[in-house]
Amino acid sequence: MGGRSINDLNTIVDRTLASSLVAGSISALNYANRLNGLILGVFITAITTVIFPLLSKEFSNNNIDDVKKIMGYGVNLILLITIPAAVGLIVLSTPIVEVAFQRGEFDSTATIMTSKALIFYAIGLVAMALRLLVNRVYFSLQDTKTPMINGAISVVFNIVLNLILVQFMGHAGLALATSIATTIATLLMLYGLKKKIGSLGTMSYLKYGVKSSFASAVMGIAAYLIYRELYSILGVAKLYNLIALLVAVGSGVVIYGILCYILGIEEVKEIIGRLKVRLS
User: What is the residue extent of each domain of the chain?
Assistant: First the structure.
């Protein structure tokens, strides 16, 4: 049972419980999950698709150390992409939903409901992405049983948390429950992998994550302030809102890249180095 299948199952559970809430709850969860899944579908699936055959090849050659190195590279790339993406989805949730969906029957109330769900889905984005990669690692080790069991555990956690959080937070609680359940399941998967193949270099992941988180926090504050300032200057028209959002996102990407370079994140330094070569 793969990471995407688990996400789909959790989404079905969320929708079922949301059907008993106020009108628009199911739609809010659907639209928010679509935006969150866009990051997973476009970026993370591409990374795991490229890495999987490399993992399988090294395992078939009994090179566990190389399996760990390839996995480590994949984890770093995922952290590099998903941490700032999650921060961006959280701080710019309302304008993102407005630009993407607000038209016709999708009114301002629907935007507010969807943006709330998006914030709480985004909290689990990093764990969802890591889960996709870790599943691939297990598959490369010819272990399909562990991901299946872990998937069942994730669904159970999600149902229990849904029943608790929906009472206090409504549809937003369903999104948060999914994020928490996925995070717990991902941590269990990593722990099981450590027992299976030995040390994973967790401290290096944590250091990388801290650097990316710091850069993402600064990026998020800057992007939010830039958007708010442009929005107040340009006005509320859809085109101007889109321009303000694009400028804020573009500025955030640049700020994040610069901070990652200063903090010595190797993947970013490598990308910038290649750009310098091309430009020269």
Answer: 3-200, 202-280
